[in-house]
Amino acid sequence: MALRIREDLADLPVYVPGKTFPGAVKLASNEVTEGPLPSVREAIGAAAAAVNRYPDNGMVELTAALAKKLGVTESEVQVGCGSVILCQNLITVTSGPGDEVVFGWRSFETYPLATRVAGATPVQVPLTSDLTYDLPAMAAAITDRTRLIFVCNPNNPTGTVVEADALRQFLLTVPSDIIVALDEAYFEYLRLGPSQAYDALELRREFRNLVVLRTFSKAYGLAGLRVGYALADPEVIVALGKAHVPFSVNSIAQQAALASLAAEDELLARTDAVVAERTRVSGRLRDLGYRVPDSQANFVWLNLGDDTIEFAQACVEAGVVVRPFAGDGVRVTVTHPAEDDIFLRFAEQWAARTK
Ligand code: PMP
Question: What is the mean pLDDT of the chain?
Fold first, then answer.
């Protein structure tokens, strides 16, 4: 007899992260290649000595440090076990069966999965032809069942950003009681042009329904420790606090995040090198004939359509693990020249072969 597990989840795929193997160059998960700084390692070691105790469930010190850095009150900050959990908790506290969660597609895979797990309905609005979020189409997709909207900026996996005016116009259009989550997981890699530049914290002050999501997983290099945060109106933070799984941000993660904030000048300086590489890698790929949109993240998107899986498999055979999205394209993390060149050599050979 079948066990009583929700039947509506039967066809839901599980999240499959990029797989790697010993010796491979892993460019599949948008991580940084460098390990933690000595000061961060030291904080990790010190925290490890006290893991017989539960972590601070209120994440008081880290919340205070983030509030201070960002010029907001502590009642506007919620730390979570990765920003993915904050995405999930936002869905949980806003949406149930029959409710709709709107986001662009293709985008971060957690949005549809977590929406379905909550029993709510994902509303996937296709990206524009230049692979950016189509905000007017998303506004048109709002119904009286819409409870939450995700705007992934830059978008994972395409790396594209929306224009600043379009974003503000969108926020003006969305009914003010519907929460809009601006997912800025790649915030530290943004180098926005004049028409794109926006200040999420300023927008947050203007729009009470705006939630900004950021993470320590990318530029801060703590993907393995799972720390992210939400900036939101205190009413949203109270709700997120209710959904917070007790003690889910462990004590090592909290201390490593604090040490990373203390060393952030050094960590953020590294993003400049990645940004320079992103320009170089995108340019070279375009010269080779690939369709690559402008990226504002630490990865680039190759629009490969039906060739996606074949390309990704051949790439793995060449020792480089990238992230394929069947039928659409491949996302490749940009790190530093030594690794990126290994990928580019493969991309060159592939382009030569298919000419
Ligand atoms: N949002 C986006 C757009 C992402 O790409 C990711 C990581 N892949 C996350 C959120 C979650 O990041 P984390 O849980 O590591 O903070």
Answer: 96
